[in-house]
Amino acid sequence: ESMTTSDQLVELLATHREHAALLLDFDGTLTPIVDDPDEASLSSGEIELLEAIAQELATTAIVSGRPGTFLHKVLRFGARDASKLLVFGRNGLDIVDPSGSISAVPTSSAWTETMTTIAERARNVATTDSVEEKGEIITLHWRRAQSQEPALRAFALESAANFHIELREGKMSIDLFPPGTPSKQSTVRRLAANCAAVVFIGDDVGDLEAFNALDEIAETRTTVRVAVSSNEAPQELLTRADLVLDSPTRVQTLLRQLKRALENV
Q1: How many degrees, rounded to 5, is the angle at CA 9 between CA 5 and CA 10?
Q2: H or E segment at 259?
Q3: Whole-angstrom Cα distance, residue 158 to residue 138?
Q4: What is the pLDDT of residues 162-180, one digit of tens each?
Q5: Which 3-state string (H, E, C) describes 30-83?
Q6: Which of 26, 69, 178, 264 is 20 to 30 A from 39 via CA?
Q7: What's residue 118's pLDDT?
Q8: pLDDT number for residue 20
Q9: Which stretches of the chain score pLDDT less than 50?
């Protein structure tokens, strides 16, 4: 049965708190999309809100395509006491420990060399700031230079064919990564394993993978897909969502509502 209101969503999580998972994307979901990705941030109040919810639910996790180092910095881990908030960077390749350390799922060194070669070639195709190396994952961006999209797409497809790597669509971007790399789908599936109710909130093409994971487990658990709409949100995400919120600000409102409900139960 499709959830349609914020109230129902809050009630579901509060009722099943000991067996509930709240999983969230970062950019465009918890914080607005900005032209310079390094400028994305959360206020201390927004971080405290996530922390408070994490204390009450079985699982509260951020699953983002951003590197673990960025998430570690923006969430101010290491500067605060141990946290129950789980954080996964690069869609699950990086595990950010609240105490301050970041561990990466190991990838074979052969792939490290291959991805370095691909990144070097990419810089011959596009401007340097269009190529972001995240360890074994390379992201090609065209937000600041949209005329580069055709060349970057063609390069990504050619690289996939020549090097047998995988591609993942993003918002005005495309990821290139070795086969078998943890994905948002596999990470969400793992986090949902012991939960009776699972909610995922996202805004991007990559979050369709999380929706796929919820589809896989929907017969045995209550699952809710939440999309955050914007002029860049993919139509498929909005269509498949059980609930659509109109902005990251609205997500923060929902989180405050959830915190109040958890305090009052």
Answers
A1: 115
A2: helix 248-264
A3: 14
A4: 999 999 888 788 999 888 8
A5: CECCCCCHHHCCCCHHHHHHHHHHHHHCCEEEEECCCCHHHHHHHCCCCCCCCC
A6: 178
A7: 93
A8: 98
A9: 1
Distance CA 59, CA 39 (A): 28
- By the 10 Å C-beta count (0-12 exposed, 13-18 middle, 19+ buried), 84 is classed as middle
Would you mind telling me the total number of residues written for the chain in this entry? Answer: 265
Which tens digit of pLDDT belongs to each residue from 88-133?
999 998 999 877 788 877 766 778 889 999 999 999 887 767 898 8
Strand 137-141 versus strand 131-134 pairing type: antiparallel
End-to-end CA separation in angstroms for the chain: 24
pLDDT of 23 reads 98
Determine the Cα–Cα distance for residues 89 and 96; give it in Å rounded to an integer. Answer: 7
Please report the pLDDT score of residue 2 as a whole number. 56
Which amino acid, residue 92?
G
Residue 142, token pair as written in the block = 């065209």
